[in-house]
Design goal:
The protein has 151 residues and is an alpha+beta fold. 47% of the residues lie in helices and 17% in strands. The radius of gyration is 14 Å and the shape is globular. The C terminus is likely disordered. Bound molecules: FE2/S2 (inorganic) cluster.
Length: 151
Amino acid sequence: MYSKDVMEHFMHPRNVGEMPDADGVGEVGNPVCGDIMWIYIKVKDDRIEDIKFKTLGCAAAIATSSKVTELAKGRTLDEALDLSNKEIVESLGGLPPVKIHCSLLAVDGLKEAIHDFLAKNKRPIPDKLEKEHQKIKAEKCETGSHDHNDQ
Ligand code: FES
């Protein structure tokens, strides 16, 4: 059901863990299944110097989170905000349609971490990012029951 790349990132996820001294933290829930993830970023000169993630989710969520951290590391904040879910999924060789919602956690988590960093540092938040933040927050409140769908 999963591509070779998805399985590889699932079995050997990059940048797993917590970051107690993170400059920004993004927490997002998957409204479909109730799973949750955190992305932690360390920012230097507006560049993501380090990034880690923790996901309580399925194989697709873990693989896409791993890929997002790999692609975001070293990017400027603006470049990281440009990362799209489509790009992540394509770079992993695709995902079954039923798992696309799981992949959204990773990009949303990254956006939330950047939003948190900008807010904490009293920096202007781009309109688009603020809108996405409000949407993610609204979805988080609706997060419901757990329903894994891996098989
Ligand atoms: S993230 Fe919950 S089933 Fe994939």
